[in-house]
Amino acid sequence: MPKEPTRLPKPELDLDPDHPHVADWFHYADLLTDAERADLRRVREFLRAEVAPVVLEAWDRAEFPMQLVKGFAGLDLAGAGYADPPASRLFLGFLHAEISRVDPSVNSFYGVHTGLAMGSIHAGGTPEQRERWLPAMSRMDSIGAFGLTEPHGGSDVAGGMETTATRDGDEWVLDGEKRWIGNATFADLVIVWARDTDPDAGGAVRGFVVPSPSEGMTITKIEGKQSLRIVQNADILLDRVRVPESHRLSGGSGTFRDAGLVLQRTRANAAWGAVGVQMAAYELALSYAAQREQFGRPIGGFQLMQDLLVRMLGNVSASLGMAVRNAQLLDEGRGSDAHSSLVKEFCATRMRETVALGRQLVGGNGVVLENRIAKYFADAEAMFSFEGTREMNTLIVGKAITGQSAFVR
Fold first, then answer.
1. What pLDDT tens digit does each residue of the chain (409 aa) get?
2. Is residue 268 part of a domain?
3. Is residue 1, in this structure, part of any structural domain at all?
4. 230, 254, 278 - which closes a domain
């Protein structure tokens, strides 16, 4: 009889939808209403039953599990932020944290669709445009992507946008390239931001709803990513892509200001995603520390291991507290770009440290995919940079607190 291999401890997340997360040390979730907690329970059950079992293989294969779209649609929450009345920012924040806790790539898919794509139409669209596109997107019958970043334009894309929009009668002709566009490989529509070539427009950047595929649009998946591998990022080439005037988002300012409103919202959501990753890393490390034995006892009983766990919990608690307060300010109409930028910078920076501490505690076993913490460690690197790098967010906050701009043009 062949000898069975030694079974090593396998850290697990507690996916019981009725069990409070041990990482919510100060019970911030108690601030939610009974109805919000009930909705969050439905989300947790979906994540437990449908998302958690498939994400490791999907991450390894760098594929998006398309069957999850139907499950998300069944939650009937995609349009919650645009309902009358809209869901609270506090609830939506916890929603993003919950999804990210199980898998941040899946949260990125959800955030691009509901926050960036739907948010652009809600902020910049006319009532007719909202009615045309948002109901189907709320049902997730139509999936959206957001085309802003370019090969030569990340942090400075607003001032240096190279994609152009040229008016030709009742149509616009779009030319240029977009990069790192999440959901692009399977999206039904892409919100494309482009600079108006009319000299009288003063270089205004405008948003367009571009059906995908469209003639002249080439979408190429970006291969070889080592972070957020489930997210289907793509390069988009626009070669004389024609869209009618009715597809130009003309209900808001009609300029990049509309995108700025969307980015404020999604930057706050990105902070919540960073909170979810920290919660997962802490809970996995805590689970492992209770099982793993060295020198005849669980490592959770060693002083140095407890120090790592306490540092992780401190990071999670501080990040969660800041995200909660920012959501409350936004719900009260007192939040600002600078508030959201500080929260994103702080939470993403703490996340980077927290996942490293968790990987350290799990030791060599922490680099194995099935132990999950390696995935969070890798995913955190992309999350640290998107929705505004740390440096750009510090400049936004720095301008707010000093009254002086340190941006270089």
1. 677 777 777 888 889 998 889 999 999 999 999 999 999 999 999 999 999 999 999 999 999 999 999 999 999 999 999 988 999 999 999 999 999 999 999 999 999 999 999 999 999 999 999 999 999 999 999 999 999 999 986 667 767 889 999 999 999 999 999 999 999 999 999 999 999 999 998 889 999 999 999 999 999 999 999 999 999 999 999 999 999 999 999 987 767 777 777 887 888 889 999 999 999 999 999 999 999 888 999 989 999 999 999 999 999 999 999 999 999 999 999 988 899 999 999 999 999 999 999 999 999 888 989 889 999 999 999 998 887 788 888 888 898 889 888 876 6
2. yes
3. no
4. 254
Is residue 327 included in any domain, yes or no? Answer: yes
Domain tally, the chain: 3
Q: Which residues of 230-267 are buried (b: 16+ CB within 10 A; e: fewer)?
A: bbbbbbbebeebebeeebbbbbbbbbbebbebbbbbbb
Q: Are residues 150 and 275 in the same domain?
A: no
Residue span of the structural domain in which 95 resides: 28-138
How many other C-beta atoms are found inside a 10 Å radius of the C-beta of residue 77?
A: 23
Which one-letter amino acid corresponds to residue 18?
A: D
In a shared domain, residues 396 and 277: yes
Instruction: Kindly tell me the burial class for residue 180, based on how many C-beta atoms sit within 10 Å of its own C-beta (0-12, 13-18, 19 or more).
Output: buried
Q: Collapse the DSSP code of 210 into the 3-class scheme (helix H, G, I; strand E, B; otherwise coil) and give the result.
A: strand
User: Is 16 within a domain?
Assistant: no
pTM comes to: 0.93
Asked if 352 and 296 sit in the same domain, the reply is yes
